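Please, structure for the following, as tokens.
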Amino acid sequence: MPPTPDVDELTPPERTLMGPGPSDVHPRVLKAMSTPLVGHLDPSFIEIMNEVQELLRYTFRTDNQWTIPVSGTGSASMEAAIANLVEPGDTVLVPTNGYFGGRMQSMAERAGGDVVHVDAPWGEPLDSTDVADAFDEHQPDIFGFVHAETSTGVKQPDVPELTDIAHDHDAYVVADSVTSLGGVELRVDDWDIDVAYSGPQKCLSCPPGASPLTLNDRAMDKVLGRETECRSWYLDLSLLEGYWGEERAYHHTAPITNVYALREALRLVAEEGIEERWDRHLHVAGALKAGLEGMGMEMNAPDEYWLPSLNAVRVPDGADDGEVISYLLENYDLEIAGGLGDLAGDIFRIGCMGYSARPKNVTYLLSALGEALDANGADVTPDAGMDAMADQLSD
């Protein structure tokens, strides 16, 4: 028999989280997670479920009845969206302009879909003309796009143009809003998005474990009218309907503590006001961007496509991204991240999301980053960056 493990008390370091997620968690959310458990079919928890759904509708800007937290991380809500909507033989159009378009492709293929692409370079959004051309060529049944591409720092503009193109071809639209929900303008109903999924650990500043998903009636009709069963039992929305619909029948044991946390995080969104929250992210991230550029660094995305919640900035000449990231973690307990895929080694990814999107955090980050880059031999001017940031914050 193995010996009894000798494990110390849990004492993780206190980090300032300014990477691509998770973000810093609000103290009220942490407190909510320490409240007593009830059963997942307890009448009091059913009331909490109702409240979470209503708060999610507010945050997504939708009246969709089918708006739920999926039990799992953001990748679970992503897979729930794609695995339920895509049937074997469906043609699925996905983007090539970032890492998470590739993940869409993988999930769609596993669901039995035939994947085709609309192409754009990493660091650029999809062009509506290219999307229209791809529809004319391939006649896809489902179109997926990433609203806020975490790997490149690009925000997709002109979403209604894309959804109009798709619906003119009678296709369904799936939007990845993992890095936009609660931090960047997103209007599911006004923009005519059929399905949107997200994660709680980014702009909602909530620990991962219960992930937002919304589907309109048109999309749910497709899901409930499938000719073949969804290949995932756990994420099958036709089964989950019994738990999150009117019946509240047993399907699985929901992550009760994570639902508590999401409820409190969404309460904070509602108290602040969703449009005011969008404005706060824009203001604080704008100050961070001004400071980075004032220091002599270059953003990966042009201004018109800049994503406030995830700032992708080019690694300056003379610096090694891994050494800078390690310097910040070891000396300042400060987390940022490097690039993924085509941009590995070329960019830093700096989050400005939810509770982390505060003047205190961006001031701390810019000061520490300037020191780390200077120590790493980069040609930057940290003082100029701090001045530019302060000017922007004072506006």
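The chain has 13 helices and 14 strands. The radius of gyration is 21 Å.
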